[in-house]
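Open question from group meeting: does this chain pack into something compact, or does most of it stay loose? Before anyone orders reagents, we agreed to write out a predicted structure and look at it together. Recording both the input and the output here so the notebook holds the full record.
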Amino acid sequence: MTDTRSTAKAEAPGTPAGRSRRPRGRPLLYTSYAQDMALLDTRAKKVWTGLLVLLALSLSVVLADRSLEVLAGAYVLAIGAIGLNIVTGYAGQVSLGHAFFVAIGAYTAAAVSGPRGGEHLGFGLAEIWIWLPAAGLVAALFGVLVAPLATRLRGLYLAVVTLGLVFLGEHVFKEWDHLTGGPGVGREAAVPQLFGLPLDQDGAATKEQQLYVLMLVLLIAFAVAARNLARSRIGRAFSAIRDRDIAAAVIGVPLTRYKVLAFGVSSFYAGCAGALFYSISGYVEPGSFSLLLSVQFIAMVLIGGVATVSGAIAGALFISLLQPITRSLPELLPIVSADTTVTPNVFQVETVLYGLLIILFLVFEPRGLFGIWIRVRAYWKSWPFSY
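Structure tokens returned:
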């Protein structure tokens, strides 16, 4: 009887044409295709997402500047993790060369933003709306150039080829002093300037507060774009290739086109993340783009949750907030050194810890932190019943 009244209410004459009102108390009963495809398909998701964004914004006036700087870096790493999730999680193409594309973006932004005629290569365009898209597009161009290999290789072979990009990039960046400043020296990163207002200087708000809000806004924009991409025809083609590329080709999915597109989009995200991350510290050095950085991004994706945007964000926050703890190990454990020339040092411990976390999550919780959240949510939705 209740269902009949709810349906009648949903089809009330006052309802605008082409729209359907979801029956009260039935949040997952869709009466239109638009409701089923909505980004936030229930009122609870809309409310909690809004509250989460407001909470994140409120942290800019609550936390200390050092904490805001760490969170701003975590948001930028989340953008890079989303990019890796697109090519690995959604499209199923294994990539260990994410650090290479991050480096391309960082140095492109530094060159575009750098002063003309200086010691290093620079074009004097300091506006963020210029160097940020440029960093993403140049990285995407390199991704498209590498992508044809994905059409011929798969699995371990593709992973080894993309891993080679990291070592190739390390060599080129260490030798190209005019662009990078050389190993151990480095150069100034991109200047975060928006419409003539430098965001790396204290004003009405501290520079940490300004950069924190900027990175949060950009993370939301990149996350929404990635989520919409995953829900589109392109995202469904990515999923078909990931699940079974031969079957996808049989039903008419052009494998080459979508694999190239996946690498291009992923590299664009990585380039933007590289440009933004080093603009926070104001300094970029060739030794930063090692295999460890690629392992960090893989850990973010696997720990957070493969093929989920929210999982990539959760994984990036987890790894970023774990790093300050590992960097303080020399104070707690004298056996661990902060000097990279001594074994064991803190960076070796980080590498081992990332590998251990990846193994543990793959064995005990393959869906990562997102899977844990799904299980907790399902428990409370069915509570107090056990089914």
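Observations to bring back to the group:
Residues 255-281 form the longest helix (27 residues).
The chain has 18 helices and four strands.
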